[in-house]
Amino acid sequence: MYVATVNYHDPKASALFAASLRDTGFAVIHNHPIDTKLIHDCYDDWKRFFASEDKHRYRFSTGRQDGYIPIEIAEKAKGHDVLDLKEYYQFYLSNPIPDNMGPYTAQLAQALITMATTLLNWIEQESPENIAKQYSQPLSSMIVPSPRTLFRILHYPPLTGDEAHGAIRAAEHEDINLITLLPAATATGLQVKDVHGKWHDVPADPGSIVVNVGDMLQECSDGYYKATTHRVCNPVDETSSQSRFSMPLFLHPAKEVVLSARHTAKSYLDERLQELGILPMGMSLNAE
């Protein structure tokens, strides 16, 4: 499986990008407009946060669906019984951020949203006419404004050898949202599964941004763009003693956006969160 690396400023960028999403569910963007220093500053802020015991002051709020989630209660991927080996913080632009953090997180999230607007325009532009006409509105307008777009900052701690049997940093899964933008993580490990069940490393050169299709884009494109199964595997070399950090931005439509005859963005998100056990069955997430 070949995940294409696309120069953001290439005259053929939109076609190359959409083709890679179509073929693999993933694409890697380089030479993009987001300041690399901003990405580094954001990582540095969160490295300090996860290294501090002060992080426990910001435990996850069920009502706001944001805050710090320690490794002992981290999520399980759908269909898996073992917790992922990660701790993380969920941040929405409309919600407060921990004290003593710089402005970098909100600035980077906003820059990624702006870039995502262009990428969604590319996806729509390169969609066949029979697919594009099914979109209930322009793809880029689905995310503006949307309070459910989620910035998740993850810390995968060093491995100790005492991990539960079968536990990995992030078990295989698909993303729920329209598309995900991921500034290159601080270490390798991201893999995507092809139709034959074989795993392939996703390129993650420093400064690049990985983009992948989520379930909601699959839903509104009637399966033309498919959400591809991916995971973060455990390192087996000397890097197993090192932390890994990543910062995916999950682009969610506004709750009232119609994805298909079956679902709005809200009904789809509620269904998936219930499947994951994040929401009790029959309950709805407050999307305001």
What distinguishing features does this structure have?
288 residues, alpha+beta, Jelly Rolls, nine-stranded mixed beta sheet, four-stranded antiparallel beta sheet, 6 helices, 25% helix, globular
Structure explained in plain terms:
With 288 residues, this protein is an alpha+beta fold. It has one domain (5-275): B-lactam Antibiotic, Isopenicillin N Synthase, Chain (Jelly Rolls), CATH 2.60.120.330. The protein contains six helices and 13 strands. The chain has helices at residues 13-24, 36-51, 104-125, 129-132, 215-220, 265-275, and strands spanning 5-7, 26-30, 67-69, 87-91, 150-156, 170-173, 179-183, 190-193, 199-201, 209-213, 230-232, 244-246, 249-251. The strands form two sheets. Strands 1, 2, 3, 4, 5, 7, 10, 12 and 13 form a nine-stranded mixed beta sheet that branches. Strands 6-11-8-9 form a four-stranded antiparallel beta sheet, with no helix packed on it. β1, α1 (13-24) and β2 form a beta-alpha-beta unit.
Task: Offer a quick outline of the entry.
The protein is built from 6 helices and 13 strands. It has a single domain, classed as Sandwich (Jelly Rolls).
Secondary-structure blueprint of this entry?
Layout: E1 5-7, H1 13-24, E2 26-30, H2 36-51, E3 67-69, E4 87-91, H3 104-125, H4 129-132, E5 150-156, E6 170-173, E7 179-183, E8 190-193, E9 199-201, E10 209-213, H5 215-220, E11 230-232, E12 244-246, E13 249-251, H6 265-275
Parallel strand pairs: 1-2
Antiparallel strand pairs: 2-10, 3-4, 4-5, 5-12, 5-13, 6-11, 7-10, 7-13, 8-9, 8-11
